[in-house]
Every structure is written in structure tokens, then in C-alpha cells.
Specification:
Helices cover 52% and strands 0% of the residues. The chain is mainly alpha-helical. It has one domain. α3 crosses α4 and α8 packs antiparallel against α9.
Amino acid sequence: MVELAVADAYGAGFEYADRPFVVRGNTLAGYVQHPRHRDVPPGRYTDDTQMSIAVAEWLLGDDQGIPALADLFVRAYERDARAGYARGFRGVLEEVADGTELPEVLRPESDMSGAAGMDSTRAAITAPAAHTGTAALSKACVAYTGDVDRVATIALAVASCSAEYTQDLSPALPAGPANGP
């Protein structure tokens, strides 16, 4: 979980940023401030890590039902409300009292992140095949541009659990991700 949070926090500085900014800053020398999202300080993980924590709690729990997962998504947000969520989804999480209301409020017909989510997932699955170390994998995920924090989160979660990858992320990165408000 730590590696995916580190990758998410690193990628958050580059999410949907212009390619020249990504090329200049994607050095793994440290976390960077996103050029537009000033409400997400460098080194802060995003919704991708929080939702991954909720999924991990769900997998480890006794109730494997979808309502239990929905409740964990809401509780993960409530215990650590932070910038980084899509505006619409953040609004939904702030509107509902608990997970039982979440499926009723979500709009399954929304296409706000469907195509982007598939592209991110595809990138996260293919990127690990081209790299043997977590540092090169992190840089490659960010270099894709787009929803790079999601790509890095998924890819590093996989790589961190495999003996096939050298765990060589820059020492500057694991010092975060930052906690706090």
C-alpha cells in the first residue's frame, strides 16, 4: 500500500498536465506542485489511494457485498477528506450519510471518466511489462500524460508485490506521501 500511495502522490503533480511540464519535471527527484491544482500540495496522495485503501479494507473484512464496499468508500473519504477527487464524486461523497445512499446517488450512465479510466487501466497493465524496477516504472507511468496518478497507483501496486521488480524508487519520494488536512 505504501508504494501505491507514493506513486499516486508523485503522479498527482502531473495529472493531465501539459507534456512539456511533465518532461521537465518527471525526474523522481521529489514530489512536484501541480501547475493548476494548487489545492493538492506536493506529496499528497489522492482519491486513488483512498479508494485503494477502501478496497483493501473490504477484501480483508467479513462482508464482501457491494453495499459494504460503498460504505468503505464513504468512510475513507470522511476520515480523510482531501482534494484530489473529481468534483462531482467529491460532491456525492459529501452529500451521502453512508454507503447505503451511494449507489442510489451515483449515475451509472455518466461517461465522465469511463474512457479515461479504461485508458488508464490499459496503461497500468502494459507499463509493468516494459520495466524491471519501480523507479523506471514510475517515470514511465507519468510520461504517458493524462490520468497518470491512477496509472502509477495501479502499476506500482502490482510491481511492489512482485519479486520480479527491483524496489528502487528514489529516496526522495518515500519520505512522503504527506499526511494532514
